[in-house]
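Backbone geometry tokens:
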Amino acid sequence: MEPDPILMVAEIFASIQGESTAMGLPCAFVRLAGCDLACTWCDTAWARSGGTPMVLSAVLEAVEALGLRLVEVTGGEPLLQEACLDLLSQLLARGHAVLLETSGSRDLTPVPSGVRVIMDLKPPSSGEEGRNLWSNLTRLKPTDEVKIVLADRADYAWARDVLERHDLVRRAEVLFSPVEGRLPASELAAWILADRLPVRLQIQLHKVLWGPLARGR
């Protein structure tokens, strides 16, 4: 028998999905610890290191105990852990609808095809623009999503250019999300409307419900 893979886990919890096209749905979250990026406006910096070691079977048991079909694996950067792929495969095998939120700096090739990927593209304000793995765009499925978090007008102009240059809306659903406290959502909405961009404005619903500092919600 092969050994049970070990994952470094920051938290496992049930919540209302606050982002993506699944926004508003009850969802089980597995937040894996560890990230090799340091975005200037990161709202989960506490999960960039540490975590609790858990064998894969224990993670799956914890997810099943939450009693929800929709599961999101997030981080940190979950694809830093090789066992994340085992987790994704096992969740699919158990009949879950599986979301993977990833920074976009890791190769998507090994991700099981049944997983809906929510991939970030990092704009200039993040400080990590150079870490975007642009070849990932060719690996996106029509059911996948691209999220761009924007802090200012320069980020918006960058995102608008990327949208056109890479024909993003043909590849996947595109989400523009404002950085809380730096870009009012109403201002971003006005820019999207003025340019008639075919993107979805995303506001982090979980922060509206429980505040910006809540964990496990």
Q: What stands out?
A: DSSP finds six helices and nine strands in the chain.
